[in-house]
């Protein structure tokens, strides 16, 4: 019999894995069947993607499978989302590849482990809700920039190019090196890549229920093998895939190694937190459920540490696989655990077959992934919406593409914050009110001003210029704050300076209509009598003035 339903989210969010909640609600044969089907469906999608992402990241394909198995299981077992699927993600390709080039695979393992510890701490400190405050133009520009970088990273294998030295990381240098090697292109590789794209897209259009990614790779691999197409394969570059998970191994925790890996760990943490919570929010929107962001961060942290111990690399929530899980009818987190088990079964049983996969086919697959990451319709809508959103989007996209992912997030977030401050300041108004009347006569010694919006550092300059031009030196100013929602310390200082100015001229400032929370906040900022007076309404203010 199902137990009482445990809370999924809300203000007092518990650090409780969603798997516990799902089992507490009752779990029977029907739920098991749904999770089995969904887990198998997601595993079919994850198999080629995990290997392709690992290769594009500069490590062996087996490490992508290790990441999907260990990281994927822990994310589902311990996470705060019912439907989140964890594993290697395309968003990390650029960072992981750069980390491997600078610190090696051992440094990547340590950076992943340290990132996991940081993510877990963020969750334990309950900072998950804070990390989710990312402006939408930043998210769109960020993912579009990553899409461009991923596509550029696949050109070499798509065309079978032979470079005289290591492929550069920065996109401008990369494109220059690829252009210099243009005469080494291999027609067979181009044909395999194009054929992969055509088969996958045709399956998506004409047979959408079939696993297009896996079938596309399988068909092209079979044809390339049977026809002896001269292209590089997984086995020719990396050798045979192992049949088992490696024994767990703790990364090198020496001070020098930590110092070298720490910058990469910070970047992994920032990107992993944003990507995983964004994926969980997508699942919420599709399913009507609510995830626990802090629990999700703790699980992502444990999953990254676990993956690092078993030879994997960065784990995060993956939007495409998570969405597939929801559409496949998953009941809860058990589907994600089954997904990891099915990938493990492939490694145990069918690993040798993966060696025949052409690298050009995987490059074509990642080309599709990169193209889909560039949300063209969303970008066009944001550019049309306002110049501010367009600026944030374009700057984020350019910085991510041509500079650095972490810089792109930070600069985009800061620019988005400045845009928000400007908009909030523009919504703040200070306008003269109607003449004050008492006993049927107009009070010439009393003027009223209506203050609306948020009185904070962004709006003080505009408001201050208006207050400086208050004329006549009236006996009292009634400042109506009934439509003010917030006053920060800078806004409070501006009001205090007005009150002091009135006092020096022998007048008074009376604040009218403040709600109890607003009055308490203003008093806490130093706006207390005798500098000014609080009254509930105009009548009370006049009575106070005439007392």
Can you give a write-up of this model?
It is a single chain. By secondary structure, this protein is of the alpha/beta class. It contains 22 helices and nine strands. It has helices at residues 18-24, 29-56, 61-78, 93-124, 128-131, 136-159, 171-180, 187-206, 212-226, 234-238, 255-287, 293-309, 319-327, 334-354, 359-373, 376-385, 387-402, 405-427, 457-467, 489-504, 516-524, 538-546, and strands at residues 86-87, 316-317, 429-432, 437-438, 441-442, 446-455, 476-487, 508-512, 533-535. Strands 3-6-7-8-9 form a five-stranded mixed sheet, sandwiched between helices. Strands 1-2 form a two-stranded antiparallel sheet. A two-stranded antiparallel sheet has the order 4-5. A hairpin with a 2-residue loop joins strand 4 and strand 5. The longest helix has 33 residues, at 255-287.
Write the layout of secondary structure elements.
Layout: H1 18-24, H2 29-56, H3 61-78, E1 86-87, H4 93-124, H5 128-131, H6 136-159, H7 171-180, H8 187-206, H9 212-226, H10 234-238, H11 255-287, H12 293-309, E2 316-317, H13 319-327, H14 334-354, H15 359-373, H16 376-385, H17 387-402, H18 405-427, E3 429-432, E4 437-438, E5 441-442, E6 446-455, H19 457-467, E7 476-487, H20 489-504, E8 508-512, H21 516-524, E9 533-535, H22 538-546
Helix pairs in contact: 2-3, 2-9, 2-13, 2-14, 2-15, 3-12, 3-14, 4-11, 4-12, 6-7, 6-15, 6-16, 6-17, 6-18, 8-9, 8-15, 11-12, 11-13, 16-17, 17-18, 18-19, 19-20
